[in-house]
Amino acid sequence: MAIKSILISQPAPETEKNPYADLSKRFKLKVDFRPFIHVEGVDSKEIRKDKVSLPEHTAVILTSRNAVDHFFRVCKDIRYTVPDTMKYFCISESTAYYLQKYVVYRKRKIFHGKQKFIELLDVIKKHKEENFLLPCSDIHKQEITDVLDQHNIKYTKSVMYKTVASDLSDLADIKYDMLVFFSPQGIESLLQNFPKFKQNKTLIAAFGATTAAAVKTAGLRLDLQAPMPNAPSMTMAIEHFIKNHKEK
User: Fold this and answer.
1) The whole model's pTM is what?
2) Within the chain, which residues score under 50 in pLDDT?
3) Is 130 helix (H, G, I), strand (E, B) or coil?
4) Is the CB of residue 237 less than 8 Å from the CB of residue 243?
5) pLDDT reported for residue 154
6) Does residue 39 contact residue 162 with C-beta atoms inside 8 Å?
7) Cα dihedral across residues 157, 69, 109, 47: positive or negative
8) pLDDT at 50
9) What pLDDT is stored for residue 115 in this prediction?
10) Which structural domains are found in the chain, ordered by start?
11) Angle 19-27/234-247 helices, nearest 10 degrees?
């Protein structure tokens, strides 16, 4: 079948010059963006019920911008003034710089890894005397807590935000040739919004092994999976798919 329209289950890129715009122009595609999931903050009352005492912690591990936002949101909600002595351990340099939204960067003790948590762990291990707080989502990488446990790091995990399905009811009568997913939660949102969803000729593309597995577990047909050896990005995978089907 000829692909004319694609729905990407993520927010639109911040700039007009992006791989999806190039793909749309080259193959004359209608490419729309719509997040199927979004993040909501956990009420500070719920965090209190978990008996998480922020003042007891001397350092905080921040694995994303969401973690940064919700850590400071909770602090504000419970009227806790973060001391200047607090140490921040960030997953990447960009996450560390994002702290400037809340603190005077040059006056704080801020450390960061390159991008992977295992890299940040090397920095954390040099500060094992600290009592760490780990703000996280209800859906988080188990390897993070596993690694902290393995190295006897003293920390408290606090679920401060959660990933929930977005309301997609306005898409009920809109059809796309291809739906593109990047997480198992995106698939769950699709079925939660449209429990009677029938795939029929709609193509489904998935990025990552866990997302691909979620498609199959849901009883849907997986038509395209990325990354692939010759297509490390989703846009490249879609391009290969379109070219291959044109040749057939």
Assistant:
1) 0.79
2) none
3) coil
4) no
5) 96
6) yes
7) negative
8) 82
9) 82
10) 5-36+166-247 (3.40.50.10090), 40-163 (3.40.50.10090)
11) 20
